Amino acid sequence: MAAGFSAPQRGRKAHGKAYLWFQRNESRLLAVDIVCIVILFFVHLFTSTFQIFTPEVETAVQITVIMLVSFIALTVAWKGVVPLIISILGIGLIQYSVMLTYYPPEPGNRDLGGAKFTYPFFTPALGTASNMHFFLGLSMSTLSIIIAFRPSLLFTRNRPESLDSEWSKYPVWYDNTLLTDGRMESSVPVKDLMTGQDRYLLWRYEYILADIYGTPHLVRPTALVPKDSTHILREKDSGLVIGKARYNGFFM
To answer: pLDDT, tens digit, for every residue of 169-211?
Structure first.
């Protein structure tokens, strides 16, 4: 039984390590995605300008495009389903633009001495369709990158504030009881400064707001605070402790 339970645990640990790696390298992944977008643009510019229809060039272009768009999809997949789906749609459009270039719906035919040859017949209308599919796919891939890494760029006016913005102005208390003159003040659990009713409702809080040394701090319910220099802040009307809710469905 222990071996059976160890496999899911290893899977969760591997998933956590992968997520942590992506999170630590977020800026690098964004930079590489931008490079991929630029390379895709130049690849499309090359294929639409020079129109070299050889098997070697065709294979090289397809492999390059698939690798670039797949990397973009991989870098945004850990950010959620929405950027991943948008990226996949962009991949399909970009790949189809390449297929239109090298595999047109109506290839040209030529008869030379009884031998028939088939070759890509690249017309202006086909070029327009290829460009439209490519730039639409490139736009969707870029949009997926923005949603994944810089969603704030999508809000130019009336940007909604995050739920944590109200509490970001308060520093977090880290059980530091060292005074400015080097003396140590006796510390107690913050629960000891509360009433029984406060402790009963404490599970609802991620942080509580307390005045420590004259400055409001966010204090964890399990933290230690200086006994004589801490004052828990409360609402004027209800007398309840002011704090950041652990669950968004509760209002403090």
So the answer is: 888 887 655 444 455 567 888 888 888 888 888 888 888 899 9
Distance, in Å, from the CA atom of 36 to the CA atom of 28, rounded to the nearest integer, reads 12
Instruction: Report which of 180, 160, 163, 164 is spatially closest to residue 172, judged by C-alpha positions.
Output: 164
- Which residue type occupies 35? V
Per-residue model confidence (pLDDT) at position 252: 43
pTM of full prediction above 0.70: no
Q: Tell me the C-alpha distance between 195 and 68, whole Å.
A: 60
Query: Which whole-number Å values give the CA distances from 102 to 55, 122, 136, 151, 152, in the listed order?
Result: 9, 8, 19, 36, 39
Question: What does the CA dihedral 17, 19, 20, 22 come to, rounded to 10 degrees?
Answer: 120
Domain ranges of the chain: 12-110+119-153, 163-252
Burial of 97 (0-12, 13-18, 19+ CB in 10 A): buried
